[in-house]
């Protein structure tokens, strides 16, 4: 869902991917600030929104502004998704943890290094004596397995996972 949200704000696929990962790292680091009695999606989208604005400032670009009607429609759609009983924070986090645990040991390690510890692909590659391309490929394959696992549990739509 975060990818879909970022795609509504950005055009460049690389920027979408980069800001998705950065938002996840920030969310992980600030998890203690999250009020889990409230919907998780708006909190995560707030982080992503601030990162998008920072990206625009850094690149000295004027953000593409959506009309009020379009922004309201996007917000309403995300609120509908957030309220879906099949996708509570607890279900998502438990399922993600189980999917990570189901990864082969080397893939689990690389996912934890990248997203939990916040190591760059270059740092992981250097510490693991891998080429940067091998490291990136392993991260990509591990993420692919996580997507498949979450789809199998009904917690990730196939349309959003392919964006």
What structural keywords apply?
163 residues; mainly alpha; Rna Polymerase Sigma Factor, Chain: A; Arc Repressor Mutant, subunit A; 2 domains; globular
Explain how this protein is built:
The protein has helices at residues 2-9, 13-29, 40-58, 68-82, 89-101, 105-116, 121-128, 132-152, 158-161. The protein folds into 2 domains: 1-83, Rna Polymerase Sigma Factor, Chain: A (Orthogonal Bundle), CATH 1.10.1740; 86-163, Arc Repressor Mutant, subunit A. The protein is globular, with a radius of gyration of 16 Å. It is built from 9 helices and no strands. It is mostly helical and 163 residues long. The model is unreliable at 159-163 (pLDDT under 50).
Topology (elements, then pairings):
Layout lengths: L1 H8 L3 H17 L10 H19 L9 H15 L6 H13 L3 H12 L4 H8 L3 H21 L5 H4 L2
Helix pairs in contact: 1-2, 1-3, 2-3, 5-8, 6-8, 7-8
Number of helices: 9
Give unreliable regions as ranges: 159-163
Shape: globular
Topology as a string of helices (H) and strands (E): HHHHHHHHH
What share of residues is helical?
over 70%
Average pLDDT confidence is 79
Count of distinct structural domains: 2
CATH fold-level name of the largest domain: Rna Polymerase Sigma Factor, Chain: A
Distance between the termini: 10 Å
Strand content: under 5%
Structural class: mainly alpha
| Number of E strands | 0
Determine and state the CATH class of the largest domain: Mainly Alpha
Rg over CA atoms, rounded to whole Å, is 16 Å
Q: Tell me the CATH architecture of the largest domain.
A: Orthogonal Bundle
Largest sheet: none
Summarize the structure.
By secondary structure, this protein is an all-alpha fold. Helix content is 72%, strand content 0%.
């Amino acid at each position: 869902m975060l990818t879909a949200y970022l795609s509504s704000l950005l055009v460049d696929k690389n920027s979408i991917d980069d800001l998705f990962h950065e938002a996840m790292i920030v969310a992980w680091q600030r998890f203690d600030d999250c009020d889990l009695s409230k919907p998780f999606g708006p909190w995560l989208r707030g982080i992503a929104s601030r990162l998008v604005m920072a990206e625009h400032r850094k690149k000295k670009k004027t953000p593409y502004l959506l009309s009020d009607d379009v922004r309201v429609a996007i917000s309403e759609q995300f609120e509908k998704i957030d309220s879906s009983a099949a996708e509570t924070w607890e279900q998502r986090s438990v399922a993600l943890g189980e999917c990570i645990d189901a990864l082969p040991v080397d893939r689990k390690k690389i996912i934890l290094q990248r997203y939990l510890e916040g190591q760059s692909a270059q740092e992981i590659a250097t510490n693991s004596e891998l080429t940067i391309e091998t490291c990136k490929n392993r991260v990509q394959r591990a993420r692919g397995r996580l997507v498949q696992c979450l789809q199998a549990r009904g917690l990730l739509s196939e349309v959003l996972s392919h964006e």
